[in-house]
């Protein structure tokens, strides 16, 4: 299993660095689950929270309309 991205870089997920949290969104802008991302339980919980907050601030879209009709 891949090492947790946030543990490896010794950072915490934050909406302020949404380039980092955006990596954990699927092409359809769904949050990638822990099994696929390799993020640890602690950071996955923080990540989910930060993604929701980033969406609230309109930094990230709720859904992607790319490739959809
Ligand atoms: Zn971690």
From TrEMBL:
Highest taxon above the source species: Bacteria
MF GO annotations: small ribosomal subunit rRNA binding; structural constituent of ribosome
Keyword annotations: Ribonucleoprotein, Ribosomal protein
GO cellular component: a single term: cytosolic small ribosomal subunit
InterPro entries in the cross-refs: Ribosomal_bS18, Ribosomal_bS18_sf
Family to which this protein belongs: Belongs to the bacterial ribosomal protein bS18 family.
Source species of the chain: Candidatus Roizmanbacteria bacterium CG_4_10_14_0_8_um_filter_39_9
Gene name per UniProt: rpsR
Name by which UniProt lists this protein: 30S ribosomal protein S18
GO biological process, alphabetically ordered: translation
Alphabetized Pfam families for the sequence: Ribosomal_S18
Entries under NCBIfam families matching the protein: S18
PANTHER family: 30S RIBOSOMAL PROTEIN S18, SMALL RIBOSOMAL SUBUNIT PROTEIN BS18M
